[in-house]
Amino acid sequence: MAALLVSPTMLVLTLVVLFPTMVALKDSLFGEAGLDPETGFVSETEPFVGLDNYTAVFSGEAGDRFWNAFYNTTFFTVTTVVLETLIGVAMALIMHKAFKGRSLVRAGILVPWAVPTAISGLLWRWIFNSDGVANAVLGEQILWTTEGVQAQLAVIIAEVWKTAPFIGLLVLAGLQVIPKEVYEAARIDGAGALRQFWNVTLPLVKPALLVAVLFRTLDALRMFDLPYILIGAQKHSVETLSMLAQDEASNVRFGPAAAYAVILFVYVFLIALAFVRLLGADVVGDGDGSPRRRKALPARRRTEVTA
Fold this sequence. Notes:
Layout: H1 2-27, H2 52-57, H3 60-96, H4 102-114, H5 117-127, H6 133-138, H7 149-175, H8 180-188, H9 193-221, H10 225-230, H11 241-250, H12 254-279, H13 291-295, H14 299-306
Helix pairs in contact: 1-12, 3-7, 3-9, 4-7, 7-9, 9-12, 11-12
């Protein structure tokens, strides 16, 4: 019965995840269809090149472009996730407080997350125009959507505005399951607001926070639509690995595009594995509070934990 109930989900995952991944892996081993060097005739079949597409990624002009995209992807991921985590936790703490108009504040904070990314990119492109709101507020004439550090800053601002509420929402869910008695006991022991946050709130909300950071990190590593719409394609300052793969595919170089996609997949997989193994992100619900772990405890210890 369990296998029967899970089978529709596994079928969908096979069709939309496993099958495309295997096709991308296969395509990365083939080159472009064109002139056959042996016969001199034009061939419509793609030649098998083995790992040549992967070796070409790390050498020459293609290598320079790849490492630039790899740096941009990593830089955007680290910067945006750190800022989103700090702002998201602050949002969650504000939304968790009981005050008049809290529902309105919650709705306002979550609005950016509800806006589609394409619409968000167009909105911020209008803000960062040469005659847009950003330059009017700053009193400067900054070309935000061209090459340079200002383009990276524009992407970071737009991305943090868009996705910080997501972390805030998940952290808020973690805050709402913390018993009030814990804070009352901390206040009785003389702990101030900062001490309560550091020794009570943060450890208890850590599982939800790690899962939120993991999800945002994986999303940021695959960043494509926001810099593509906000800044544009083939911009050295903001080109990510996803944008690089799309550019290769749009120029009918499917073998190199698939190679870039596979490398990005491996990169994302390693980051996810590091989160689960090193940081202890409980993404499968197998933490210390799982039934299996509790069964392994002695009877006396189970009584103490329950108490």
